[in-house]
Specification:
6 helices; single chain; 3-stranded antiparallel sheet; alpha+beta
């Protein structure tokens, strides 16, 4: 998205750039999910993929070890009978709802390890929430290799870097977006820049606190 802005705003006047870039740049400070996570249970690994600048990057880590406490509480979620469970992860406590009707020990983000699919999980302060909207059973085999690797599989060409370096590079990328606009000959009004950096500054509540 950012790369497209560099090439399409070049010919516009200052006000036209404001009109075009404003609505798009305003979205960049929101907590929209742009990353992809791939799990390899046989290797006990998790691969986290995202775009930094205009290039793919990824980091690899051991799959988290979740210590789940399953309770007898049940309720329907997304049309499935679910059971409640709790775990600690990344400095937070999470509540999950899983269904045995889908016997897959998986879930959103890095969560897994319950006797059924996790269809809803949230931290107990409700800062983060993942919830299943729908589920479709495909009776035919699905070939991931025939699809886009960025969407459904790890990118073979993306460099594999350390997690700390990945996070720092992502942060630096957010802070230098307007420098790259300027290098392409674009001028973004100060008001848009100020609002954008104010949103970046407020992004101080990551899902994994530690």
């Amino acid at each position: 998205m950012q790369d497209s802005l560099f090439t399409t705003l070049n010919h516009l006047s200052g006000q036209e750039q404001l009109n075009k870039a404003g609505p798009i740049l305003s979205k960049l400070g929101k907590t929209e999910i742009r990353y992809s996570i791939f799990k390899e249970p046989s290797k006990d690994l998790v691969l986290y993929h995202d775009v930094i600048g205009t290039e793919d990057h990824q980091y690899q880590e051991n799959a988290p070890l979740f210590h789940w406490k399953i309770t007898p509480v049940r309720k329907a979620v997304a049309g499935y009978e679910c059971q409640q469970a709790f775990t600690g992860f990344g400095g937070r406590t999470f509540e999950a709802w899983f269904t045995r009707d889908i016997p897959v020990s998986e879930g959103p983000y890095k969560f897994y390890g319950l006797p059924g699919l996790i269809v809803k999980v949230r931290d107990t302060h409700s800062n983060y929430l993942f919830e299943l909207l729908s589920f479709e059973n495909n009776p035919k085999p699905f070939d991931i290799s025939a699809t886009s690797p960025v969407i459904l599989g790890p990118s073979a060409s993306a460099p594999l870097i350390k997690k700390a370096k990945f996070k720092q590079a992502k942060h630096n990328d957010e802070l230098t977006i307007f420098d790259r606009f300027a290098a392409s000959g674009n001028i973004i009004p100060e008001g848009i820049q100020r609002d954008y950096f104010a949103k970046i500054k407020r992004q101080n509540n990551p899902l994994e606190l530690k």
